[in-house]
Design goal:
CATH topology of the domain at 87-217: Histone Acetyltransferase, Chain A
Distance between the termini: 48 Å
CATH class of the domain at 87-217: Mainly Alpha
Helix content: over 70%
Strand content: under 5%
Radius of gyration: 37 Å
Largest sheet: none
Low-confidence stretches: 19-24, 72-78
Mean pLDDT: 77
CATH superfamily of the domain at 87-217: Bromodomain-like
Structural class: mainly alpha
Shape: elongated
Number of helices: 8
Number of strands: 0
């Protein structure tokens, strides 16, 4: 219970005890008590709302303190910022995802060109299909290699239309590296397969370095867009809580008015009782 509400309770408890001791009209006293109880029930509900708002701003402040450098600059930029509505944010998010997906598809298309060039190399044939572990009698293969991978599987997953395919270029890059890393790990250095895998990996890395700046740029752009979206969501939440604070303030003012009216009524009743007693004593 807040200090203000505590004072309300204490004040009216004293007032009601005064009335109880000073008047025989029990029904009227009970009526006052009912009205006061109703008001304090409303105050209890308001307190819960206030606590929710306070908790929101406490969490918001913690996030601000733990966020990255440059907050002060961003806060200056956010002053006077237009806050889009929830509906507008949803529309923007949908459009943003659609545009980002098209950009990623273009990057994946360019990566597909790299994969095709590697696959067409004269030494690529051992890596185009899953290793025939049983046929080659490689009984220890799965003990050495935790995650088998091949270029054919990568190509199929890139072309998947059921939603199980790759979501970004770096994931494809990681699997291409895995193909050759597995081959070099299982086959001894100096062996034909080890040499073939090492050569193809080097050629792949050369081509990947040409595409990498575009991938990095896209990742940075996505990160900035996501930060922008999160900021807009936070601003909408803060605006919503600001409205709640105003509504709570109005309700508290209304409650305060009712309490003041009750206080005046109680005081008047006590005054009347005191005058009646003086009149009685004069007789």
């Amino acid at each position: 219970m807040t200090f203000t509400v505590f004072l309300f309770h204490l004040h009216f408890k004293n007032q009601m005890e005064t009335v109880t001791m000073s008047t025989p009209d029990i029904a009227e006293v009970d009526q006052f008590r009912c009205r006061v109880d109703e008001i304090f029930q409303k105050i209890d509900k308001l307190e819960k709302k206030v606590n929710e708002v306070e908790q929101f701003y406490l969490n918001a402040n913690k996030k601000k303190k733990s966020s990255s450098k440059g907050n002060s600059i961003r806060e200056e930029q956010d002053k006077g910022r237009h806050v889009p509505s929830i509906k507008k944010q949803q529309q923007d998010a949908s459009q943003r995802e659609s545009t980002a997906a098209k950009r990623m598809q273009e990057l994946m298309r360019q990566f597909g060109t790299i994969l095709r060039q590697i696959s067409q190399h004269k030494w690529a044939w051992p890596f185009m299909q899953p290793v025939d572990v049983k046929g080659l009698g490689l009984h220890d293969y799965y003990k050495v290699i935790e995650k088998p991978m091949d270029l054919g599987t990568i190509k199929n997953q890139m072309e998947a239309k059921d939603g199980t395919g790759y979501k970004n270029v770096r994931a494809i890059c990681a699997d291409v590296r895995l193909v050759f890393d597995n081959a070099m790990k299982y086959n001894e250095e100096g062996s034909d397969v080890h040499l073939m895998a090492k050569t193809l990996l080097e050629k792949f890395e050369e081509k990947w370095q040409l595409l990498l700046p575009k991938v990095t740029e896209e990742e940075k752009r996505r990160e900035e867009e996501e930060a922008e979206a999160q900021l807009n969501i936070q601003l909408v939440r803060e605006a919503s809580h600001a409205k709640r604070v105003q509504a709570i303030s109005n309700e508290l003012y209304e409650v305060d008015t009712h309490l003041e009216q009750l206080r005046e009524t109680v005081v008047q009743k006590c005054s009347c009782l005191s005058i009646d007693r003086l009149d009685q004593q004069s007789f």
